[in-house]
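Sample intake — M48 family metallopeptidase
Collected from: Leptospira jelokensis
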Amino acid sequence: MFQNQTFTSRYFNGVSAVPEDGTVLVHGQTIQFSSADTNHKISLSQFTEFIRTHNGCKLVLLPDEIKESPILEIFCTKDESKLLEKIWIQNKKSQSHSSAFFYSIREMNPIVLGLLSLIVVSIIGFFYFKGLEVVTNFIPLSMDKSLGDSVQVKMETGFDACDSKATDRFFSEALKQIVPKDSKHQFNVSVIGSAVPNAFALSNGKIYFFSGLLNEAKSQEEVLGVLAHEIAHIEKRHHMRNLVKAGGTSLAISLVIGPGLGNMEFLETFTEIGSTILVLKFSRDFETEADITSLDYLKSKNISTDGLLSFFKRMEEMENGENESEGTEDVVSAKDESSTARKITDFLNTHPATKERMKTLESLIQKGKKGTIKKIVSDTTWKEVQSTCLDLKKSDSK
């Protein structure tokens, strides 16, 4: 405890930029500043902030929210500054229970405090994002349909459709086989003329297959596996869940940052995120869930599960440049090369075929029955399905 100890100091009154030079007399819990023109006697508890500096400390008198606060700067040793801060904290802790809690935290070791903060934030974050998952249960399925309908309009203005009687027959029969009986969604499949070997689903039950996937498929069971995967995305409401998660994350960030986003910038940011999520890249967790669910769909209808694994293995090889398909450029339509189509196809690279994913699929397929049904239409119909977009291109060139 300081007893009548004097330090060199200077006082900023909050009005003038020029400080008053003087001395500070510290007696117990009281500080008395004296200069040629000023004499202030202030209790340590009256200062709202204590800041240690390289040559002493600074004590801030008022919250710096409305106007510049008076500041008392004391020149002292590092140990004296620590002792003075300790006295100040003890004074602040005695003011209320909340102050006692806050200033007790301030006294903690910075490393320990950092670790505790990380643990607390992690726990809060875990339950926060778990809560966001629950939120989706209270959103009606009509919202999924509206979300998908809005995207579908944009999608179909950017691509050429290659639907035919053969594709309609194939996918109609496939949907009857794979879609769960208790499904509340209305499913429909369309083929898009594009060399990209991919497929994606919208939240309203609309599923798109790029012709490149059909052209390069080695069997019907591969396409059935991919279809089951896309159906799983819709049944598990991955679009809406990801949208809620993205919106919740944006909200959490804005709360942490504070009002720095501006009056309307948060709404603009949320809208931008929402519009992007409409044609989203699914997270790894959602992809894994879709894989597992799709295998359940196939096994329940005795449909072969080997096709899904076979398809993703070939996609992995293509990505690694080990198995580049020949002649795919002949399938690319002129419209597919347009800027709109290009942007969407680049963005829709939603199914990374990682080695970890392959191992998971292999492990799941080995468990239980694998299914024996590999075909749902005749070989003749299947050949028509694979050649539909090629026939369309030939007819357009005549």
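Post-analysis note: Residues 139-397 form one domain.
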